[in-house]
Amino acid sequence: MTKPLVALLSGAGVSTDSGIPDYRGPNGLWQRDPEAQKLVTYEFYMNDPEIRRRAWLMRHEVGTLRVRPNAAHLAVAKLERAGVPVRVITQNVDGLHQLAGLPARKVLELHGTARRFVCTGCHARGPMEDALARVEAGEPDPPCLECGGILKPATVMFGERLDPVVMGEAVAVTKACQVFVAVGTSLQVQPAADLAGVAADHGARLVVVNAEPTPYDDRADEVIREPIGTALPELLRRLGTPGNDWAANGG
């Protein structure tokens, strides 16, 4: 029996067990400190050197590059190693799916990656570690070494467009999959949230794993409110069970 193509749309809730706070939940970063949103808003970032200095300081102090994958990330990689066709469409920028062992070609990063920087002028790129080392050495707002332009993480900030190529690939995967798991995402940020509806429209079994209700719960075949660190590994274990026709019969 052909194994179903499993697409996972992963949001901030997948990485909270790794120590990365979510943004839109009841205790999310935007709720606790609305001003922090300016640090990742393109217009503010580009026009206010103080915003950039605060943003670089936050990146240095938060230590995102030091976090490690948790049980949810590892479960996805384990499913892929078991021979199940898996594609991850992630709203996260932490690179933890790849660190957990999922091949990079099977991860679509809708919002880019915080593990690299990009120059807004000449578009030079490099590892974020290099930029953060300059911050630690005393450069509060390190300019591009190639052209002197403003550096930013290679993420999609508020006010920037998603990469149309990456989004196109995400839509193609969503239309082709037999199982679509939306995990740790509020399904409120467009156009990523629309993928859940696209999956359902094309006949995929839709599963929502999230602590809070989402706008797509009423379209889901299954809604799971249990903690992601235990719920997702169990869900994916079912999918990886030999002979499991879970996509067709509902598990």
TrEMBL record:
Active site: H111
Keyword Hydrolase part of the UniProt annotation: no
Superkingdom of origin: Bacteria
Species lineage: Bacteria, Bacillati, Actinomycetota, Actinomycetes, Kitasatosporales
UniProt protein name: protein acetyllysine N-acetyltransferase
Organism: Streptomyces fructofermentans
Residues that hold Zn(2+) according to the record: C119, C122, C144, C147
Gene Ontology MF term list: histone deacetylase activity, NAD-dependent; metal ion binding; NAD+ binding
Keywords tagged on the record: Metal-binding, NAD, Transferase, Zinc
InterPro entries the UniProt entry points to: DHS-like_NAD/FAD-binding_dom, NAD-dep_sirtuin_deacylases, Sirtuin, Sirtuin_cat_small_dom_sf, Ssirtuin_cat_dom
SUPFAM superfamilies: DHS-like NAD/FAD-binding domain
Pfam families reported in the protein's UniProt record: SIR2 (PF02146)
Entry EC number(s): 2.3.1.286
